[in-house]
Amino acid sequence: MFLTLTLLRKGIPGKQWIGKYRRPRQITWQMKRNTLKQLEREAENEYWISRPYMTQEQEHGHAAERRAQNWLKIKEASFANFPEHKRITDHLSHLRITKNWSS
């Protein structure tokens, strides 16, 4: 296809690197090397992913205690900023200052 276009039209229409009838890039040895390195890296990652660190039994509930401690820390930190309780007598204590029962 590219040979026919090149022979009949004497060139690639428009920009040569983009579009439907673009010129294909030459594959260099660096491209091959980088692709090979990437495939090797993926193969190593798949190898390590296929071997789990913990079994299913070990994994079930292994972080429950740590998560409970973290939740208690968060809860205590939120209560530390909470103001103390105020009773209704604290709010209304100013109303009976001048009233005397004995006179």
TrEMBL record:
GO biological process, one term: mitochondrial translation
Gene Ontology molecular function, alphabetical: structural constituent of ribosome
GO cellular component: mitochondrial ribosome
InterPro entries: Ribosomal_mL63
Protein name: Mitochondrial ribosomal protein L57
Organism whose genome encodes this protein: Haplochromis burtoni (Burton's mouthbrooder)
